[in-house]
Amino acid sequence: MPADKQHWFRIREELPPRRAALLTAASFLLPIAIWCIVSYTPFIWHPDVKLQLSAMREGVSTTYTAGDHVSRDFFPTFVEGVRSDNAAIRESLADPEFKGNSAMRRENQRRLRQLAPVAISNGWLSAGDAENDAAIYEIWKGIATGTLVPTRPALTDENLAIVRENWAALAAGSETFDFKALPDKPLLKLVPQGRLANPNYLPAPHEVVIKGWTLFTQPLSSGQWLYQRLMHSITIVFSGFLLAAAIGVPLGVLCGTYDAFSKLFEPFIDFFRYMPAPTFSMLLVAVFLAHDAPKIALVFIGTFFQLVLVVAKTTRQLDRSLLEAAQTLGAKPPQLLGKVVVPGILPDLYNDLRILLGWAWTWLVIAELIGVKSGLTEFIETQGRYRNFDAVFPVIILIGVIGFCTDQFLAWFRGILFPYTARNRRPLGLGLPFKGLFQRSPVIPAATPESSR
Amino acid sequence: MQLELPDYREQSPEVRARFAKIAQRPVVLGVEGLTKRFQTPRGEVTALEDVTFNVHRREFLTVIGQSGCGKSTLIRILAGLETLTEGSVLVDGKPVTGPGPERGMVFQGYTLFPWLTVKKNVMFGLRVRGTDTVTAESEARQWIEMVGLSKFENSYPHELSGGMKQRVAIARALANQPRVLLMDEPFGALDAQTRCQMQTYLLQIWRNVDITIVFITHDLDEAILLADRILVLKPHPGRVEELIEVPVPRPRDPGQLLTPEFLATRKRLEELIHPPSSATTDKLPNLRLTTVGDEVE
User: Residue range B174-201: average pLDDT?
Assistant: First the structure.
């Protein structure tokens, strides 16, 4: 039966390469697709309104500025509140008895600045000019006279009317900005505008991509570049891991080879690994002070004890009969360690270290939080505290990508290092399905050694 | 129908002369009163009791017996991989105390070093004993050629078939030029065809090399086809039941499987290994679960 006609679900049968490739691609694309659907389909979730234009209200303690999220239920109340403020203003303006007040100019200046976020997102004003009143004044004039038409976002008709109404009052004083010429009677407030949005802890993909791009292409506010922080984090992970491996691998091999080592070290190590590494953080800071040393020590503690046990187990799994065969060939016991045990376990040891490197990465986050916070984690923490989740996601994804790529590279490199291990023993073998994407017809499996006599 | 078979002890003059010649040769492997007892949670178990035999130079001895009769224990003791409780094992008159290169061993599970190529596998014994690389390499090549695998000298074991792996294992053991080659059911994991081929190979190698072989098997035909003498072990505890001199003339080939001498020897082995009493002990209960009435037997 041709491979494409076979059933998709066959118990413990491998799929043809094209299908395998398709599903492998889908396993990455599906989560991204779900993220896109949730982000870009307004009726699916979107419990918030992201303000594009906000207003201040007297006697209300919480102020919102453009870019803030308010809940979808609260937004109409907010809008109605501003409208009733405007109604009150119109009422008092209509009263011939109503006297102006020079203190009102300060408030009117603030109301003029309401337009600044709209002007910025329409590209008429640079982000640093949010308080450049002269420029903002020109924009009021432009919109009121129709020379400027806001499109991103467009102003509602209600707000356009307000702009014209206010401009009439402003133009009566001066055509250009002059604080002294501002009306002493209150201007109308622009009514808040916004669009439906998800909570800011779930930014949309494009926001994350754009933010991620700027994070990598521009220095951070601290003057550092993101890659410098990344290098710092990598240094911590690898220092801790390599230190653990340098001591742990020989110890593990000895424990797996000689029962004396095993009985002397393993019981305590087995006990110690149940004490979570983070519980030592304060102690490590006290011993190694605040900078990188306690962080490296934490990664070390987190990996070392597991590593010794895993390596010892791997060593013990070496086929005994290989040792016996070597002995009948004349190898003396001291030679066995170097000639049989070590080369025999090397491919499995390599895999163990690959897995433990993954562990080391997980300890990184805790390690960077102890003492003086540093590296990528410090960045995530700071940005998270300001709720800049669009900056947090790129960094989280970056750590994931680096970990994944390292692992895939190491898996591929294993095949180069140990050509004698059968190819199908590669644990994940992502290379294989992706190759299938570019094949037109299903490949005929290579002849197995048994049949190629 | 019962075939008329000669007595398995009847030997033609040539065969008799050959055995006389073998007996003249020096004893390479001497086993004297070998006893092995294990301590188990349920008490002491005697695996081998008072096993005594000699193997002469260039003799081919096969050891046969039911499973659990201690064949593997015996050969592991000969190899020095296990200790004996009583008695002695002598190679060229010197007692065995542990594994050593003068007793090569071929295991059922191939036990090739997967990280070494065929050539490096064969060189292993020479290298650990201090031979320099150049000499070891040229010697290894010679042994690889002898087992017919020159084309595969740079292949890794996982690229070889079972039969090829076992040929490498034989070359590897022989490269050390041991006095005795111990083979523990070496062809047990191979299919019938490969197995037959391997037996022919082994006989050919044995003819070309000065080597004494002790070969464990549970296959009666294999035991007869290869051996000068067959040591039959009897289980619980393992004891020597009989040492049979095989009356089949050399050189051997699978065509002799149906000769009268061969069948006579085989009949004797059947009697020893599957005595008529053992066939009746495990009778199945007479339960029928069939609905179709006709007889299938």
Answer: 92
Phi-psi group of B93: left, alpha or beta (phi > 0 → left; psi -120 to 50 → alpha; rest → beta): left
| Contact residues on chain B for A450, CB-CB shorter than 8 A | 161-162
The ipTM (two decimal places) reads 0.89
Say which CATH class B14-102+186-276 falls into.
alpha beta
CA nearest to B66, candidates B227, B232, B213: B232
Superfamily of domain A219-442: MetI-like (1.10.3720.10)
Chain A residues with CB under 8 Å of B129 CB are: 330
Sign for the pseudo-dihedral over CA of A382, A385, A386, A391: positive
- Residue B279 confidence class, pLDDT cut points 50, 70, 90: low
Q: Which ranges in chain A are annotated with CATH 1.10.3720.10?
A: 219-442
Could you say which DSSP state residue B254 is in? G
**B115–A420 CB contact, under 8 Å:** yes
Q: Which of B128, B201, B131 is nearest to B164 (CA)?
A: B201
pLDDT for the residue numbered A260: 96
* Separation of alpha carbons B269 and B262, rounded Å: 11
Nearest CB partner across the interface for B111, out of A321, A418, A421:
A321
**With bands split at pLDDT 50, 70 and 90, how would you rate the model's confidence at B280?**
low
Distance from CA of A419 to the nearest CA of B (A): 8
B104 contacts A329? CB cut-off 8 A: yes
- Measured between beta carbons, the chain B residues lying within 8 angstroms of A418 are 115
pLDDT tens, A115-134?
A: 999 999 998 988 888 889 99
The encoded tokens of residue B44 equal 């002491």
pLDDT tens sequence across A165-183: 999 999 988 888 988 889 9
* pLDDT of the residue at A422: 63
Ranking A1-5, A260-264, B208-212 by mean pLDDT, the lowest is A1-5
User: Which of B125, B161, B172 comes nearest A449 by C-beta?
Assistant: B161
**Per-domain boundaries in chain B:** 14-102+186-276, 109-177
Query: Which residues of chain B neighbour A327 with C-beta distances below 8 Å?
Result: 80-81, 98-99
Measured distance CA(B21)–CA(B26) in Å, rounded: 10
Q: What angle do CA B248, B252, B255 make, to 5 degrees?
A: 90
Closest partner residue to B128 (CB to CB) among A331, A346, A449 is: A331
Contact (CB<8Å) B104/A328: yes
Please state, rounded to an integer, the average pLDDT across all residues of chain A. Answer: 88
Minimum CA–CA partner of B80 in chain A: A328
Per-residue pLDDT tens digits for B248-274: 998 898 888 889 999 999 999 998 888
Is residue B59 within 8 Å of B22, Cβ to Cβ?
yes
